[in-house]
Design a protein that fits this description.
By secondary structure, the chain is an alpha+beta fold. Helix content is 40%, strand content 27%. The chain has a four-stranded antiparallel beta sheet, with no helix packed on it. Strands 8-4-3-9 form a four-stranded antiparallel beta sheet. It has a four-stranded antiparallel beta sheet with strand order 6-7-16-17. A hairpin with a 2-residue loop joins strand 16 and strand 17. Helix 1 runs antiparallel to helix 4 and helix 2 packs antiparallel against helix 3. The longest helix has 59 residues. It is extended, with a radius of gyration of 41 Å. It starts with a helix and ends in a 9-residue tail after the last helix.
């Protein structure tokens, strides 16, 4: 008899292991994308959470005012203010040094030590504020000096502030990096890829403009739990920087029908645009007001074979299979995660064309580079995606942070799938016996519960009988005084 029982158990174990191996292979199939992002056209009706890749524009601000001798007064006042700030900085340095010396002279553990520390930190803060104020004022003095020198050169060249004469102008050009905005060329929609073999929790947040802010995902594979539960069933049957303004002063001679005079001009443009229409418009608009300046762009080169200081190579395929692009497919049409892109360096320069802005072929010595600013822009930057994959037999957790569409953090918690698979056969073997023991416990519990219920009913009957006796005894009338 014991031999037959052992044979049954061994045969059952082998059967469970075979089922386990089969379902392990099924579990491996669940180690796939938990979400998907697809590129769609703006205006197309879609299902899911939509988002854009970011881009950053640059604003050019141009201001022209009539120059006069007030620039000299401005320089005088700036120098006077600088002297006052330098005096205040010297005093702040002396106070900071005194507070530091006092703090160091007090023994550790003394009650006055903490007060001296606070006084030292306060004095040091005031010293830094004074130092920054002096630095800013020195910049203002330098700007005023350049304005005075330019004004003097202008008057020597025949410019004047006298009524009826050709005036001198102060030109100020400023380049400002704008906040990230959606790039309508790159519009995506993301959805979860559900399967009955996983518990999925996915959260995605975007700005009101449609740029990614954060995303979290918890994907718990239930294949192993399902295998164990099946085994139990079987067992019973047998879980921004801003570029500084450039002060310029020049004598403007009307040319080609342009209209001289003071004016203010602003234009926002995309340095990553595929053509030069926008920067050509800036040159044309300024030329109409006799301001012969133009904007020049130096963009990163991504169409090269090798990577060096000025060339960014596209990612190469490591296998022999043709890429999606080579097959005529859009490589951004699908990804098992969220798309993002990295910024690239763009150099934006302001060029003084002299009397007239020449064409590319005519550019020569009159074209003077007045300023160049380096901007890190995601426009046309390399596009990648953060994968959200659910590993078989384990719980996979992702935590991703974005700053207006720009990736800043990616945390992934993926336990070992191999360890979970190694533990699974033992769970499968134990499952039928645990299930059988649970059934036996249920039966024992049922018998115990039935006995307890019987005893409770008997106690209730006894209590009712006692209560009845008490009621009857209280309802019997007392004997009368005359003995009747």
């Amino acid at each position: 008899m014991l031999y037959y029982i052992k044979s049954f158990i061994y045969a059952h174990i082998i059967k469970q292991v075979k089922i386990g191996i089969l379902l392990v292979a099924l579990g491996q199939a669940t180690g796939c994308a938990a979400i998907k992002s697809e590129r769609v056209a703006v205006g197309e009706t879609t299902q899911g959470v939509s988002y854009f890749l970011p881009k950053r524009n640059i604003k050019l601000s141009f201001t022209r005012t009539i120059a006069d001798k007030k620039v000299e007064a401005t320089l005088t006042n700036a120098k006077k203010k600088l002297g006052e700030l330098e005096t205040a900085e010297k005093q702040a340095k002396a106070d900071a040094a005194k507070a530091k010396a006092l703090y160091q002279s007090i023994p550790d553990g003394s009650a006055a030590k903490e007060d001296a520390k606070k006084a030292k930190e306060t004095a040091e803060g005031k010293r830094k504020v004074a130092m920054n104020a002096v630095s800013d004022q020195k910049t203002k003095v330098q700007t005023a000096q350049e304005a005075v020198q330019a004004f003097r050169r202008c008057t020597l060249e025949g410019g004047s502030t006298t009524a009826g004469a050709q005036p001198c102008y102060n030109d100020s050009i400023k380049l400002t990096l704008m906040d990230p905005v959606p790039d309508p060329r790159y519009f995506f929609v993301t959805n979860m890829k559900r399967t009955g073999l996983r518990d999925d929790e996915f959260q995605i947040k975007t700005t009101a403009d449609g740029l990614l802010s954060s995303s979290t995902g918890t994907f718990t594979d239930r294949t192993g739990d399902i295998i164990v539960e099946i085994a139990k069933i079987v067992g019973v049957v047998a879980a921004p920087p801003t570029a500084a303004a450039v002060p310029l002063t020049e004598t403007v001679q009307p040319d080609d029908g342009c209209t001289p005079g003071p004016f203010k001009y602003e234009h926002i443009f995309d340095p990553g645009a595929p053509n030069t229409v926008e920067i050509d418009k800036i040159k044309s608009d300024l030329a109409k007001r006799c301001a012969n300046y133009r904007v020049a762009l130096t963009r990163p080169n991504t169409n090269c074979e090798r990577t060096n200081d000025v060339c960014l190579a596209p990612r190469q395929n490591n296998n022999n299979a043709p890429s999606q692009k080579a097959q005529g497919k859009d490589p951004l049409s699908y990804a098992p995660g969220l798309f993002y892109r990295r910024p690239l360096p763009y150099i934006v320069s302001v060029i003084d064309c002299g009397k007239k802005c020449q064409t590319t072929a005519e550019r020569g010595s009159p074209n003077v580079n007045l300023q160049s600013s380096l901007f890190m822009l995601p426009n046309n930057g390399p596009i990648s995606y953060v994968p959200f994959r659910a590993s078989p037999f384990v719980k996979t957790v992702y935590d991703v942070k974005f700053d207006k569409g720009l990736l800043t953090q990616w945390d992934a918690d993926r336990p070992s799938e191999v360890l979970a698979v190694v533990r699974l056969p033992l769970e499968i073997i134990k499952a039928p016996f645990e299930a059988l023991s649970e059934v036996l416990v249920l039966k024992v519990d049922y018998s115990s519960n039935a006995k307890a219920l019987y005893e409770a009913q008997q106690a209730e009957i006894e209590a009712a009988r006692i209560l009845q006796d008490v009621v009857e005894s209280n309802s019997t009338p007392p004997p009368s005084a005359d003995g009747e």
